[in-house]
Amino acid sequence: MGSNDTTGETESSLVSKIWQIQERMRITSSCRFSASKRIRFDWNLAQLTVVVLSLWSIAISYLLLPGSLDISGDIRIKFQSIGILLPVFIVAFSLIERGENYVRSYQLDNSARQLREIGDDLTAAVIEANSREDHLLDALKTYSSRYNHSLERCPVSHDDIDYWLVLFTDIVSGHRYAKWYRAYALVAVLILITRKQMKRTFYISLWLAPALYITLIPAPSPTRAFPQTSPAQRASPCNLTESASCTPAG
């Protein structure tokens, strides 16, 4: 009796440990799938922002060409200011949202697929073990090692927002957690989503920034290096520096 009880406890402990590592694999793979999608979306949004700003720069450069359109002085000054600022924003975006983010998205997606495959193999191994303790122990050692090795091979990891989003999804879908943990997860998700949406809103607002600058912000007044002259003086053939000795014709 005592030997059977000990064997049953050992088997139950192994099953519990296997379930824990399966749960870790599921959560980690879900987090990395979420991170891959999020990073890819942000990278595409940043590239689209660069394209929109580049189109603005091309359009303004065309409007400033001589003879293209009859533009008033104030609007022309605004266009010139935007034409100077836009290349700066384009270079800044190109440096901030480099291709490294796209590579990171690919690495996270690949890692998530590997973890999900390891989890499926572990489930199949547990079924084949048929509750035999030695086979369960071998499966636990083998797939724990594969899980840790897969994590070590991936040079990047997901962010906090990805973990809290997966946890919140689990709570909504019926997974049991303590009430205080559910409340904490909800607050964390709201804060992190707000931060993420602020970044995306900022990117989209830059699409309309040149138009808002043209319509809402007054044009800077140019500094006058020469004294103000009247229309009659500008029409006179006399040189302004020699106006004292110049007499009108007739």
TrEMBL record:
SMODS and SLOG-associating 2TM effector domain span: 18-193
Domain of life assignment: Bacteria
Region (Disordered), start-end ranges: 225-250
Pfam families linked: SLATT_5
Protein name in the entry: SLATT domain-containing protein
Organism: Sphingomonas canadensis
InterPro entries listed in its UniProt record: SLATT_5 (IPR041115)
Keyword entries, A-Z: Membrane, Transmembrane, Transmembrane helix
Listed Polar residues bias regions: 226-250
Membrane-spanning ranges: 45-65, 77-96, 201-219
